[in-house]
Amino acid sequence: MTRARWVIGNWKQNLLRGPAEALARGLVGGLPDPLIDSDDKVKVGIAPGYMALDVVRPWCRPAGPLFLFAQDVGAQESGAFTGEVGPGMLIDAGVRGAIVGHSERRALFGESDAVVSRKLRCALDAGLRVVLCVGEPLEVRAAGDHEAHVLGQLAAALANLPEDSLNHRVIIAYEPVWAIGTGNTATPDDAAAMHGRIRSWLREHFGAAGSDRSILYGGSVKASNAAELIAAGDIDGFLVGGASLEQAAFLSIIQSVAGP
Ligand code: 13P
To answer: Any residues with CB less than 8 A from the CB of 64 and at least 6 apart, and which?
Structure first.
């Protein structure tokens, strides 16, 4: 089976509704026709802030070519959970997937592995796609413990997940924390090595369903380094922060993943 290639822009806490709509419109206008016509080459997603979801929706499936993601999702479907946005609410707003376990949620908002696991399960049960983020902080890499750290995050997030739930709706994003927003991209070799390790772990635990999953790289992906990262192999696309806010840069990254 061919693994799906994805480029997803995580807009984080940026862009009011007007600029968000303009960026989505500009992206759609700039996508090469073959990408719009075909589902196969590369799927393009955007993850705006909650308040801009409705204004970008006309550019997203089924009306347009983009896939609409939320940056987070509640760990429960509904109830007395002030401030939370559940998967059903997202689906109702036209959202197709959610990022779960981003390192900023883990580090700045205290999300534990257990919460990440509950969010993942709740989102999948509701029918959303999930982009599960894993990645090690700098001190963990310096100590040489990065593989164990990342595989531990994976094991915790996917614990108790029925084997048939690890289908095309689960996308993994390897985002080393030290590479996020720093300009310090992982070398293509380091990124590919971790992707290979994640893939073999998934195969060991979930069989063919595990090895077929798309594994994206994230962390200071730019127009200038996307092609060499893809060329390293085993990288099925990108989760892009800062560069996804610039139309030309994001389109160039998409083109690098699509190939000539
Ligand atoms: P940057 O591309 O800005 O480093 O952010 C990466 C990221 O956190 C995407 O989720």
So the answer is: 28, 58
Q: Which of 21, 104, 111, 175 is catalytic?
A: 175
pLDDT, tens digit, for every residue of 52-85?
999 999 999 999 999 999 999 999 999 999 999 9
Around ligand 1, the residues with Cβ closer than 6 Å are 10, 102, 175, 180-181, 218-221, 239-243
- 135 alpha carbon – ligand 1 mean position (Å): 12
User: What is the per-residue pLDDT for 40?
Assistant: 64
172-201 pLDDT, tens digit each: 999 999 999 999 999 999 999 999 999 999
Q: Where are the domains of the chain?
A: 6-258
Query: Which residue has its alpha carbon closest to ligand 1 atom 2?
Result: 241
Cα(112) to ligand 1 centroid in Å equals: 20
Residue 149, Cα to own-chain centre: how many angstroms? Answer: 19
CATH class of the 6-258 domain in this structure: alpha beta
Alpha-carbon dihedral sign for residues 45, 50, 56, 58: positive
Reply yes or no on whether 195 is catalytic: no
pLDDT at 204: 94
Contact 135, 147 (CB under 8 A): no
Is residue 69 within 8 Å of 53, Cβ to Cβ? no
Give me 227's structure tokens: 């092609």
What's the gap in Å between 79 CA and the centre of ligand 1?
A: 32
Catalytic residue at 175?
yes
